[in-house]
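G., the chain you wanted modeled:
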Amino acid sequence: MAVIESLDNNAFHIDSESHGEESFAKLAGSITIDSSPELRRVLFRILKASDCRRLTLDFSTVVYIDTSGLAVLIEVLRSARQLGKRLQLSGLRERPRYLLESTGLLRLFDEAPTKQ
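Predicted structure as tokens:
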């Protein structure tokens, strides 16, 4: 296990790690217009690593996501597909899931089983 990056500000936190071809990013807090640029930067760095074939985003402790966060997810998904890699979401809670469902975006993403 290699920890790639840990980012923390008052409202948002991300920890990422890599296990061979699989990379994981555990997101926590609120993904807003203030935190989404840093989220974008971290996710693109992980995705562009040559050994990363699948990136799983763990949303189990994300309480809120706004439209700027959705835009980042779509951008990262598009890039993953262009690179021949997989992006999947896990642990979607009520509010983030509702926003993804109501915008019709959830169907674009693969969902991974939630880790216990």
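The chain has one domain: 2-111.

Shout if anything looks off.
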